[in-house]
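Hypothesis: this fold can be encoded by more than one sequence.
Test: take the structure tokens below, design a sequence, compare later.
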């Protein structure tokens, strides 16, 4: 990182990562073109992996099967300065590799954890799992490097 004073501690970066509701997963798409998708993450304290859910088929799945190297970027909500235009926020970038979760029961457990971040109604979550659980593909991002920084726009 070029500006070391802006670097977040490992603990601060992990906190941003754990609380982020959304982020961009970037990978190599067709013909080497960059490809990024907006996803909801779930950081699992038990194994230090970041999980996502999606479809078993499609451009994202095809791209990840060809090259599992990715980056995942999140930012916190930030705060506005007194003048109202400049934002101070924390961003985190995770570099790592994607693994396709093959254990269906574990994948469903992860889907429940993801869903609870957005919907506290357990019956809604179970209805969705019954309806779409067989078609879901859970992805695990295995971090190799995590960097975070504090940014002040000014």
């Amino acid at each position: 990182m070029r500006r070391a004073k802006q670097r977040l501690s490992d603990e601060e970066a992990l906190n941003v990562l754990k609380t982020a509701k959304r982020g961009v997963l970037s990978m190599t798409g067709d013909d080497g073109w960059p490809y990024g998708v907006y996803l909801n993450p779930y950081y699992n304290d038990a194994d230090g992996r970041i999980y996502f859910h999606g479809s078993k088929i499609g451009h994202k799945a095809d791209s990840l099967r060809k090259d599992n190297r990715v980056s995942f970027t999140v930012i916190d909500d930030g705060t506005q300065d007194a003048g109202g235009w400049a934002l101070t926020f924390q961003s985190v970038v995770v570099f790592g590799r994607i693994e396709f979760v093959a254990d269906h029961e574990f994948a469903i457990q992860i889907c429940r954890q993801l869903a609870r971040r957005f919907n506290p109604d357990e019956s809604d979550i179970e209805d969705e799992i019954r309806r779409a659980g067989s078609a879901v593909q859970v992805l695990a991002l295995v971090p190799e490097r995590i960097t975070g920084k504090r940014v002040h726009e000014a």
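The chain has a mean pLDDT of 93. The chain is about 25% helix and 40% strand.
Hypothesis status: open.
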